Structure formats: C-alpha cells, structure tokens
Amino acid sequence: MYVYPAEEAGMSAERLKHVSDYLEREVADDQMAGIIALAQRRGKVIHHSVHGKMDIAAGRPMDADAIFRIYSMTKPIVSVALLILHDEGRVQLHDPVAKYIPGIDRMKVFSHIADRRPQLVDQDPPMTVFHLLTHMSGFTNGHDPWHPVDRLFARARERHGFFRRDISLKDLIENLTELPLKFQPGTAWNYGVSTDVLGYLVQVIADAPLADFLRRRIFAPLGMIDTDFHVPPEKLHRLAQLYHADAVYNPQHIAHEDAALGDVRQPTICPSGGGGLVSTAADYLHFANMLINGGELDGARIVSPMAIKRMTTNAVPRANLPLNIGVERYGYGFGLGVRVMVDPGSANGYSSLGEYGWSGAANTHVVIDPQQELITLMMTQHWSGEYHPPRSIFPNLIYQAIDDLN
C-alpha cells in the first residue's frame, strides 16, 4: 500500500513518528500480539504500519494481508445493506418489523418485578426498523447479570445455542422472539442483538441469503475480496490468532473461538449481522472510503448520499445521552448503525463534530471524520471485556499530527 508524504495531506511527518513508536512499545515482549494501523487524510494514506505477531507461539510476524475477526464492525456493513433496500423503496425506516418478520409484534416487554417474577406488557409502540438500526428496539444480549431479561437471554442462549453455525438464521430469530424485550421500543438505548435481527430483515426483504446480498451489493463492487462470514481453506494461513487478554492486557493465552459465533474456519447458515464477518485492513478501508465519499467509491455507487447523511446523524434523544458503550460513551450519540460524535468537548481525546465509526470485540476500531477528511483504522485480535489503550490512543496520535485543520 502506497503511503503519501505526510505534508501532501496537511500532516506533520515528524509528529507521525509517534505512531509507530507507540505501537511498537505495545507489542514489545509479546505483551500484545499483532496490530495493523492505517490512517488516511484527504484521500491519501499517510500511515500504514504492521506490528507484532499474528501467532506468538509460532513466532510468525503479522502480515499486512492478515484476516481478522471484526465482530461488531459487521454492524455498519449490515446497516448499509438495509439502507440500500430503503433507497430502492422496498422498506421504510418506521415500518413495523412485524410487517416482514411475523411474531415480532407478539414479543412482550418487561415492566417490573412483582412477587419476585418479571411482569410483562404488550409493545407500545410496536418495534420498527428504525429501532433496530439505532439499538432502541428493546433487544439485549445477556451481558447484564442484574437485569431479569438479560438473565433470561443468557439461559436461552445456553438452551438454543444462539448463532450456532448449523442453525438457520430464521431459527435464531424464532428463538429470540420467545424472549421479552428489555424496554418499550424507542424509550432507551441498549447494545444487543438488534443488528442480528436487522440482518435477517435484510434477508427477508431482499429475498436472498444475507451473505449473498452483502457479496453482490457491497463486497464485490467495493473490491472487498477477503470479507465474508467464514475463512475458506485456501486463506486459513492468513487468519490471525485470537488472543484473550487479562486485566493487565497480557494475551499469553490463546482464546477459543467465541462460543456465541462459532469457528470462523467453518461455513455458517446463521450469519451474524451483528458480529460475524472477517475482513482485512485493506477491505475495511474500502468500506470506510465508500462511507466518507457519501456512498460511492471508484465509480461504484453503493448507497445514496442522503442515506449516508441519515446514517451518520445522531438519532438518539438527548435524554438518553451519554451512551454507556465503554470508551465510546464520551461525547457520542448513535445514528443508523454507527456511533456519532455530538459533543467533541467531552470526547476521550481528539475528535470533530460528526465523527463516526464503530469497533469490534477483539479491539478492531475505525474512526471516520468527514470534517477533517480523516480515516483511522486499527486491526488486532485482542479479545477482552475492556478495550485496550491503542484503540483510543492510535486515533489521537493521528489527530495530533494534523497541521492544516479543515
């Protein structure tokens, strides 16, 4: 990948040296595994570095074309897929989800606890497509052990094996509809399985398997040749090892494939729209460039400029802010499938009004800043309940190297 002189993009070459120096320290002595870091400004790549190892035990250096499990960075892609259908008039944002997925409207909603039992009520209002895109649907993910709906979700996940690769996406949704919603649609924000349901919605409306629709309408036009829901045998040598990190970010133990999503080395009939894709740094940069260009890249129009504008505009009421999503909670709202910066003054570092992006559970991370015409992208396989510092420090190191502010 060609890296332009920093000055051609209004950047300081001297201050950009901090980036590689910092990332090299992070992978020193195998305290972390490998990292690929990319930054682009004004359409020109001004930083591309590869650090550490893709397999510590084998001593194998990180490859520039390594394949990563991007987990929740799948969500913006599936959200774009829905917006493609919206552009074509095949779905409206405030359509009831039950119009396309029968049974969703029969899901009950948690109200309160009485006599030590959850009390459930009918949906009011009914869940809409907009609620799925914004994570305001009431769906959860089982990660809050103190909430009765999350506990029900966790038990159901053990019983049904959510996202098993041999269970159809239709069966998954039917299992999910047996559970209550955590709150009335539109009344709160909660990070859950909304985008997985959205993926099935895309499949139903498009009348095509989700994976096929993504390949045909997004991956092929953008040249995303390595992005898919599994890694085929001929590419397995490029799959980076997944590591589990303890509280001091020491990934000396190989992590098992996430039980919720299965082994990406195997094909799946249950593609997770919320977290199932694998990709490369080069592929995801294509996707990010399509977004920052208003839905088009190199002559391939994926979605309309208005769709991108709507996607990247905060849709969460101020009463629900700030969002409780880890490091991203500082200053962010949420649009249609991406976080959106609404208050740069309270951000966890440098940012601009309208900056957007998302991250994945293995600490992959993308920042897209239209104001500064900036993209930063970091790929790693560092599974942790908490983010690790490079995820926020790397973008800051790029921002601090800007000389010519837009």
Could you walk me through the main structural features you see in this protein, from its secondary elements to its overall organization?
The chain has 10 helices and 18 strands. The relative contact order is 0.17. With 406 residues, it is an alpha+beta fold. The protein has 2 domains: 207 residues, DD-peptidase/beta-lactamase superfamily (Beta-lactamase, 3-Layer(aba) Sandwich), CATH 3.40.710.10; 125 residues, DD-peptidase/beta-lactamase superfamily (Beta-lactamase), CATH 3.40.710. A hairpin with a 2-residue loop joins β6 and β7. The protein is globular.
**Please, how many helices?**
10
Strand composition percent: 15-25%
Question: So, CATH architecture of the largest domain?
Answer: 3-Layer(aba) Sandwich
**CATH topology title of the largest domain:** Beta-lactamase
Would you state the CATH class of the largest domain?
Answer: Alpha Beta
- Compute the number of structural domains: 2
Percent range of helical residues: 25-40%
SSE order, one letter for each helix or strand? HEEEEEHEEHHHHHEEEHEEHEEEEEEH
CATH superfamily of the largest domain: DD-peptidase/beta-lactamase superfamily
Question: What is the averaged pLDDT score?
Answer: 93
Could you give the distance between the termini? 25 Å
Radius of gyration: 21 Å
The quaternary state of the protein chains shown equals single chain
| Low-confidence sequence ranges | none
The geometry reads as: globular
Largest sheet: 7 strands, antiparallel
Determine the structural class based on helices, strands and strand pairing. alpha+beta
Sequence of strands across the biggest β-sheet: 2-1-17-16-15-14-13
Total strand count, please?
18
